[in-house]
Amino acid sequence: MYTPEQAEILAIQVLGYIAGTEEELQRLLTATGMDSEALKQCAQSRAGLAGVLDYICQDESILLGFCEAARIRPDEPMRALHALQKTPDSGAA
């Protein structure tokens, strides 16, 4: 079971993973319509971090790549997403 804080940490790790590959970062920005400034703001709210987790959960290739790199089970991002969705957004991660 993830606490909201643990889920936020995992989501930030996902962002780092995606940002580590220019191609993946561009895919995220294109899919969401965000620019780099909006992405930075996204990382500062639970709703934004939940969106990042939702994004990765919908793309199996990114999900599996991240999970392998992070050495976690593929169901972990979805569990973290559920933890964030149950928690009111405090406006700061």
What keyword list fits this structure?
mainly alpha, 6 helices, about 90 residues, about 0% strand
Alpha carbon gap, first and last residue: 19 Å
Strand content: under 5%
Radius of gyration: 12 Å
| Overall pLDDT | 91
Helix content: over 70%
Structural class: mainly alpha
Report on the biggest sheet: none
Low-confidence runs (pLDDT<50, min 5 residues)?
none
Shape: globular
> What's the tally of helices?
6
Question: How would you describe the overall organization of this protein?
Answer:
With 93 residues, the chain is mostly helical. The protein has helices at residues 4-19, 22-32, 36-42, 46-57, 60-70, 76-85. It has six helices and no strands. The chain is globular and about 30 Å long. The two termini are 19 Å apart. The model has no long low-confidence stretch (mean pLDDT 91).
Q: Topology of this structure?
A:
Blueprint: H1 4-19, H2 22-32, H3 36-42, H4 46-57, H5 60-70, H6 76-85
Helix pairs in contact: 1-4, 1-5, 1-6, 4-6
Describe the structure concisely for a colleague.
The chain has 93 residues and is mainly alpha-helical. It contains six helices and no strands. Helix 1 crosses helix 5 (60-70) and helix 1 crosses helix 6 (76-85).
